[in-house]
Amino acid sequence: MQTRRAMREAKRLRSRRIRAVLAGGLVFGVGAAMTLAAWNDSEYATATFTAGRFDIVGATDGATFSSHATTGAAATLSFAVAPTAMVPGTTTYALFSVKTANPSGAGTLQLTAGTPSGTGLATHLTYGVRLVPTAATPSQSCTAATYAAASASTSIVVADGSALTTNGAATGTVPQAVTANGGNQLNYCVAVTLPTTAVNAAQGLTMTQTWQIQGTST
């Protein structure tokens, strides 16, 4: 038979268990509510990049362009007066046109003179280079007349009377810009002169010169 004291202890014990269960339920209930509130979403972006190219091509007739990327593959200039029998007072002209390939980005050009080879004629020759317009017949763009007409300072790449080793003017001095994808061409008219003052010792001498047109992308 339980005493009154034992009954009171049992009642207090049951009350504690009920409160513990209720408290646990509240804890679990709060935890469940916080998990449901943690929704999320994402956005993504991507891109693929491809490098472009820069390429220039040249032509000795103002029309038939191809690549001459090394000294070994240099284009042979076609001078109006054959440079094989020059006499004092002779000036001969040759065209070299340059533009960007298609496809290619835009850029600027710079003429650089190489070191002449041969038996010494280079020391007796002088030269000049001017930018000339494209004629209706491209091969006729570089003549004595077109060269003389291109007398503006912005057309003179190499001044008349320069030594064969003289480099062209900087692109900032003489604009030498070529647009993308062959949009325009620059016509370099090269004039080589054996001055009237050439001495007898120049007879029979030879000279070979290679010029470089260096292109830089912009």
TrEMBL record:
Please give the superkingdom of this protein's source.
Answer: Bacteria
Write the protein's name.
SipW-dependent-type signal peptide-containing protein
Which species is listed as the source? Microbacterium galbinum
**Entry-linked InterPro entries:** Signal_pept_SipW-depend-type
